[in-house]
Write a structure and sequence with these properties.
heterodimer, A: 293 residues, mainly alpha, MetI-like fold, 12 helices, disordered N terminus, B: 248 residues, alpha/beta, Rossmann fold, ABC transporter ATPase like fold, 2 domains, 6-stranded mixed beta sheet, 3-stranded antiparallel beta sheet, 7 helices, 9 strands, globular
Chain lengths: 293, 248
């Protein structure tokens, strides 16, 4: 349907054009300034991260006061605080906390050391990769918690089993992230090291280790979370001390308030350890400029 | 250039004979021969894909994965400036200059080299905090701090803006006059080659098709008549005709 088949169509076209001109004014109207939507998020809300949790506590308090929440289901915030104060006064809470923290720390240290060493060997040599990478990937496919029955048969139910379980869980993210970060080091830097006639030791120290550091820290943040996660499980499976044991015992006696104290403690430990890791991460990686800066 | 010894010296520092380099069925360098004298500044021009970088990488011992043959003599003390500054982002500027420099006075030499390229006082900056031109100056300092007998530069100013590039030309000329390394500068910029070099080579089809000594006193003026003649000749070797295109 083009203009050639209908010469008469020319007239309507002109009419349409003039119609359109009549429609133009709205588009010409000056746009109000300041109403244009900005794509950036805008200024950060001060202490914004605390608003959500605070709101949660407010709702919890109102629910408790109004009698909407059964204290057997969820005791009021203040009675949880009261229980925590009592437990501290009796010295129980500190004891359990120390036991748990010590287990997590040991598992974390062993897991991080073994994971890093394996990542380096596997990342820096073809033979190392051939030997190490397969077993680690197999281990990765098996959830650590599924290994607990076997570990109990091997190591009994003592500290050895608990620390081993945590270390095995921690090892995986450290290995995976460090290895992948190391392997993705720009080959141009390797070339540079060669033209600068660096020795192998210097190459590892100046190029490989710093290059793998971002991955290591990412792995470490996962690792810390995994350490607490495994801790909870091993302590509830079989233990005579620790926060998990405290929670399990409280469950037996229906002491919901103590269960809540334990959960809050886990949350605080998780947040604190993640904060510590990200503090060191920022300090060690201060050479980077990313979207977050 | 003052450093040009015009072949009067004895043994050349770089000696390449019948160099062959190929990637699979493609022969990039086909029996290439080249000598570079002590302190001589040689620029290497060529179309993209002509093998400029292959030759430079062969001289820099960076081509162990490439098949080939030929005789290659280069000095032990050589350094490379790449097109990207190639600074380690996790090392501060001074540490980058000192990389691989295992000398007791490495820090002192590093500071002096940074001073020389006009970056005194920026020793503790991170590479990301520097502009492109500044990063390339750090790379120059890193090369010169090693007192190289041979400086290999692979399009070192290719990524810089025109003004910065002119300043870098001056800097490189001063540094070379002072340290007198033999230089092989790979570039695709004819003016850059004629401005800086004692001798300009054109690489094509795996061999050197032109070898022109630049007999213009320094500093060289782009508007100079002789400059124009040499430029036209080089462009002709590069397959670019500069004759008027209007038909008679």
């Amino acid at each position: 349907m083009n203009a050639f088949s209908h010469p008469a169509a020319v007239a309507p076209t002109i009419g349409y054009a003039s119609d359109e001109r009549a429609l133009i004014p709205p588009a010409v109207k000056p746009r109000k300034t300041g109403t244009r939507r900005r794509l950036a998020l805008g200024r950060a809300i001060p202490f914004g991260a605390l608003i959500g949790p605070a709101l949660l506590i407010v709702v919890w308090s109102i629910g408790s006061v109004a009698g909407l929440i059964d204290p057997r289901t969820l005791p009021a915030p203040w009675s949880v605080v009261g229980t925590a104060v009592d437990l501290i006064a009796e010295g129980k809470l500190q004891g359990h906390l120390m036991t748990s923290a010590w287990r997590a720390a040991q598992g974390l240290v062993f897991g991080v050391l073994i994971g890093s060493v394996l990542a380096l060997i596997s990342g820096l040599s073809r033979l190392g990769e051939a030997i190490i990478d397969g077993p680690v990937q197999i281990k990765r496919a098996i959830p650590t918690l599924a290994l607990i029955p076997l570990l109990m048969l091997w190591f009994g139910i003592g500290e050895g089993m608990k620390v081993t379980t945590i270390a095995l869980a921690v090892l995986i993210p450290i290995y995976i992230q460090t290895h992948s970060s190391l392997r993705s080091i720009d080959s141009r830097y390797v070339e540079l090291a060669q033209t600068l006639r660096m020795g192998y030791g210097e190459f590892i120290r100046e190029v490989i280790l710093p290059g793998a550091l971002p991955g290591f820290f990412l792995g470490l943040r996962f690792a810390v979370t995994y350490a607490w996660l495994s801790l909870v499980v091993v302590e509830q499976v079989n233990a005579t001390s620790g926060i998990g044991y405290m929670i399990d015992l409280a469950r037996n006696y229906g002491q919901t308030d103590i269960v809540i104290v334990g959960l809050v403690l886990y949350a605080l430990l998780g947040l604190a350890s993640d904060g510590i890791v990200s503090f060191f991460q920022e300090r060690s990686l201060s050479w980077r400029r990313t979207l977050a800066d | 250039m003052a450093s040009h010894l015009g072949g009067l010296s004895g043994a050349p520092v770089v000696r390449v004979e019948s160099l062959i380099r190929s990637f699979g069925p493609r022969t990039i360098l086909d029996g290439l021969s080249l000598d570079i004298d002590k302190g001589e500044f040689v620029a290497l021009l060529g179309r993209s894909g002509s093998g400029k970088s292959t030759l430079l990488r062969a001289l820099a011992d960076l081509d162990d994965k490439v098949s080939g043959s030929g005789r290659l003599e280069t000095p032990d003390k050589k350094s490379v400036v790449f097109q990207d500054a190639r600074l380690l982002p996790w090392k501060r500027v001074l540490e980058n200059v000192m990389l691989g420099l295992n000398l007791p006075d490495a820090a002192k030499r590093g500071r002096a080299a940074l001073e020389e390229v006009g970056l005194g006082g920026r020793e503790n900056a991170w590479p990301v905090e520097l502009s492109g031109g500044e990063q390339q100056r750090v790379a120059l300092a890193r090369s010169l701090v090693r007192d190289p007998e041979l400086l290999l530069a692979d399009e070192p100013f290719g990524a810089l803006d025109a003004l910065t590039r002119l300043r870098m030309h001056d800097l490189l000329r001063q540094l070379c006059a002072r340290h007198q390394p033999a230089v092989l500068l790979v570039t695709h910029d004819v003016d850059e080659a004629v401005t800086l070099a004692d001798r300009v080579l054109v690489l094509d089809k795996g061999g050197i098709v032109a070898d022109i000594a630049i007999d213009i006193p320094t500093p060289r003026d782009h508007g100079d008549r002789r400059f124009g003649e040499i430029r036209s000749e080089l462009l002709r070797h590069l397959g670019v005709e500069t004759k008027p295109v209007l038909p008679v």
